[in-house]
Write a structure and sequence with these properties.
Elements: H1 2-16, E1 21-28, E2 43-45, E3 51-55, E4 60-64, E5 70-74, E6 76-77, E7 83-84, E8 89-93, E9 96-101, E10 106-110, E11 116-120, E12 128-131, E13 135-139, E14 151-157, E15 162-169, H2 172-178, H3 182-185, E16 190-192, E17 199-203, E18 211-216, E19 222-228, H4 248-253, E20 257-265, E21 270-278, E22 287-295, E23 301-306, E24 312-317, E25 320-326, E26 332-340
Parallel strand pairs: 6-7
Antiparallel strand pairs: 1-26, 2-3, 3-4, 4-5, 8-9, 9-10, 10-11, 12-13, 13-14, 14-15, 16-17, 17-18, 18-19, 20-21, 21-22, 22-23, 24-25, 25-26
Length: 341
């Protein structure tokens, strides 16, 4: 009886264990103008596995098929027609490619052949923006002054043509009195489960030892809040415990920094969190880049792994991550990576 019980417990443990591993299955790069990349940018993938990628320096969007063959391109840096002032963010919505130019505040509607349909100008969207099958989810931009007391997360449903308010953080003024550099550390990131429209936003402050993951239903109603203590507890943030004085700026520059780069849903009950930690804001200091998988029931880290400095993941679809990294010759390429467990 004891033997049977031990076997059952072992099977349960093995079935629930999660081992994170990345295996690259596609590499897009080269020396010709349609394959060379100068700087990472936004990526999306359509239902036919076609890849749309932005070069963050020249601000051109390129389309590749599932095998990495170049198909077509659109746009460039500039202020004229079909040009971008900032690195555009790509979205897929109802078989269209939507392109958000944050600096110009313009939204381009393109066909899947990257042919322009229309442009909406001077829109009031924020810096963080994601799309589900039915509409946008965006994190409104946060001003860096004491008068700004709210960080808002809203969605715009294209079918119903109305906005929904999901999240509002009103604690900035209180945190500001404790740390005028609060805004440097507040890095709320959003993810949306593409098929269901379920939403996640991460929230943390330099005065806390925890990261909150707030989950919402597609209609904007709160699902639950999950808290994880297992990431921040591994790092020391002297700035959070300082009695801030006239030397704050110098101390802040030399203090540790923690950022959440991106988050992605991995199925319904897991969230990928890509984060970085540096021992100082100074660029020459060491930066640690990691990827963690968090259980959305318990908040526990199921597994995590170190990433190469310079790896930048932009999109997740059907168990594959898409992003950029440098090869042994320090040349940038676009890669597709299978998440293996």
């Amino acid at each position: 009886m004891k033997v049977k019980l031990s076997v059952i417990l072992l099977l349960i443990f093995c079935s629930s264990a999660f081992a994170l591993n990345l295996k690259r299955v596609l590499k897009i790069g080269g020396n010709d103008e349609n394959h060379i990349f100068f700087r990472h940018g936004s990526i999306v993938v359509d239902d036919n596995e076609n890849i749309y990628a932005v070069d963050g320096r020249i601000l051109t969007i390129r389309k590749y098929n599932a095998g990495g063959q170049f198909i077509c391109k659109f746009g460039k840096r500039g202020e004229g027609p079909n040009e971008f002032r900032s690195s555009p963010v790509l979205l897929i919505l109802q078989k269209m490619i939507l392109v958000w130019d944050c600096l110009a505040r313009n939204l381009f509607y393109l066909t899947d052949r990257l042919e322009p349909l229309k442009v909406e100008r001077h829109l009031d969207f924020g810096l963080e923006i994601e799309a589900s099958h039915s509409g946008f989810v965006l994190n409104q931009s946060q001003k860096n002054d004491q008068s700004d007391s709210d960080v808002k997360l809203v969605a715009f449903d294209f079918k119903k043509q109305k906005s929904l308010k999901f999240y509002q953080y009103s604690g900035i003024q209180e945190e500001w009195r404790k740390s005028p550099f609060f805004w440097v550390f507040f890095r709320g990131k959003i993810a949306i489960e593409k098929k269901s429209g379920r939403i996640a936003i991460t929230s943390f402050t330099p005065l806390s030892e925890k990261i909150d993951i707030i989950l919402y239903h597609p209609d904007g109603s709160l699902e639950k809040k999950v808290t994880t203590f297992q990431i921040l507890k591994n790092y020391k943030f002297d700035l959070r415990f300082l009695d801030l004085s006239s030397e704050l700026r110098r101390k802040a520059i030399n203090s540790p920094a923690f950022y959440i780069d991106r988050i992605f849903f991995l199925g319904k009950q897991k969230l990928i969190v890509i984060y970085q930690y540096s021992d100082s804001h100074r660029q020459e200091n060491k930066v640690t880049l990691k990827m963690a998988v968090i259980d959305l029931d318990s908040g526990k880290i199921l597994d995590q792994m170190s990433l190469k400095n310079g790896q930048y993941f932009c999109y997740l679809k059907d168990g594959f991550l898409y992003g950029f990294e440098e090869d042994e010759n320090e040349e940038l390429f676009l890669g597709k990576y299978q998440i293996a467990d």
